[in-house]
Amino acid sequence: MKEMLERMRKHFDAQEKLREEVLDASREVIRSSARAIAAVHRGDRADSEEMLAKVRKALATLAEAVKAEPHLADSGTILAAYQEYCEAMLVQALIWDGKLLTTEELDVPYKSYLAALADTTGELRRHALDLIRADEVSEAERMLKLMEEIFELLMEFDYPDAILPGMRRRQDMVRRVVEKTRGDLTTAIRQQKLENALKRAERARE
């Protein structure tokens, strides 16, 4: 009996240790991914890459945990970490390179990828508004086009929550974000056209 109890205690001690390692790594992924996105918005490539290096190191810990306990692969903690990493990578690639990375390129679960895609539209909207304020309307139009492409992609996944939790809610959210951004951009384009017309009129009077 004592030997059995000892084996059981060792098993649960290992489970507790693994759980703490997973939580610590997940927090690092989420924290550094957020900082990487902030760096992208600042245009700081070096800082963004530095943060993503930390993310990848923490993800390696999660990968080892999943290898040891395969049932963890579908846990909320693991999926959330991959989602944040995926969002940071997508934001960086879309804003700087105009490229939509695939699940294969990112090596992330499908659920995390789709959730990250939805959240990425919010970051693209933020960038588009920054561009509008900087009078870079054509570049803001490029962001809107990317957002529309993401929305069309997400609408291909019409599954119930039992299969793809939260997808319909995310689709509705992305639709609203795209519509608001389109409205803001339309206003900016009209304003730009009006300003250009006024400048032409002034030059004509000179």
Percent range for helical residues?
over 70%
How would you describe the shape? elongated
CATH names the topology of the largest domain as Methane Monooxygenase Hydroxylase, Chain G, domain 1
Q: How many DSSP E strands?
A: 0
CATH class of the largest domain: Mainly Alpha
End-to-end Cα distance, whole Å, is: 101 Å
Q: How many strands, what sense, and barrel or not for the largest sheet?
A: none
Rounded to the nearest angstrom, the radius of gyration is 22 Å
The secondary-structure class comes to mainly alpha
Overall residue-averaged pLDDT value: 90
What is the CATH architecture annotation of the largest domain? Up-down Bundle
Question: Strand portion, in percent?
Answer: under 5%
- Run of helices and strands: HHHHHHH
Low-confidence blocks of residues: none
Number of helices: 7
The structural domain count equals 2
Describe this structure in words.
- Helices cover 83% and strands 0% of the residues.
- The chain has 206 residues and is mainly alpha-helical.
- The chain folds into two domains: 1-98, Methane Monooxygenase Hydroxylase, Chain G, domain 1 (Up-down Bundle); 109-206, Methane Monooxygenase Hydroxylase, Chain G, domain 1.
Key phrases:
206 residues; mainly alpha; Methane Monooxygenase Hydroxylase, Chain G, domain 1; 2 domains
